[in-house]
Amino acid sequence: MSQGAWQEQQLASNPHELGDKAARVQAMFAAIARSYDFNNRVHSFGLDQRWRRATVCFAGLTAEDDVVDVACGTGDLAEAFLAAGARSVTGIDFTPEMLAVAKEKAARAHRNSSARVRYSEGDATALTLPDACADIVSIAFGIRNVGNTPQALREFHRILRPRGRLLILEFAQPSNPLIRAANRFYTHRIMPQTATFFSGDKSGAYRYLPRSVETYLDPDALARGVREAGFTEIAQKSLTFGTCAITRAIKLCS
Length: 254
Known about the structure:
Layout: H1 8-11, H2 21-32, H3 36-43, H4 47-59, E1 66-70, H5 76-83, E2 88-93, H6 96-109, E3 117-121, E4 134-140, H7 149-159, E5 160-171, H8 177-199, H9 205-214, H10 219-228, E6 231-239, E7 244-251
Parallel strand pairs: 1-2, 1-4, 2-3, 4-5
Antiparallel strand pairs: 5-7, 6-7
Helix pairs in contact: 4-5, 8-9
């Protein structure tokens, strides 16, 4: 499927409603894993790393926090939490090819130290982790890619300790009409062509990206879903003219 995970017929409607969405997303990420970081840096103009650092800051990280980063991809957010002083970081992703890149980067970065980060394969909707094992659960640009958002949010709630924090970093559509139009032109016309060229991708990944953003939950709807999963004290922070947003929520004491 990696040679055609996303074709025009799948993207003409809402890709989030496809029954085999998870398999298509996995095939897509397997196809672009090696070029993923390069395209992120180029097509976000380097802002993707700034957004991740903002997420770590918004989390209120302490040296006693154990972090689980879901849909960790190549490990950028997991490493940002580690660099900021987390006690431990577990990165989980369901695409082995992405995890391979994350593990290679970690091996290079922590060659001369005992790293407090580990990466493992897993599904956001069925995490093989015990209840109340994390102080922070994070997911960056991944919540719209899971097969079942409500189930994933319930899993995040399950593995958090009382007063644990959920951090979701996700793309959004700017509210300003001019910025929204410019962003749409860039993400629909320019980025898919250049990113596909740089990566040699045949999976349709960079046509799926803008379509998946515009058909997914907006920040308000995402906040409602987070609340329905049992979280409270929900706060959101808009970044870069509203092109993405951080949602933070707290698990009540139990």
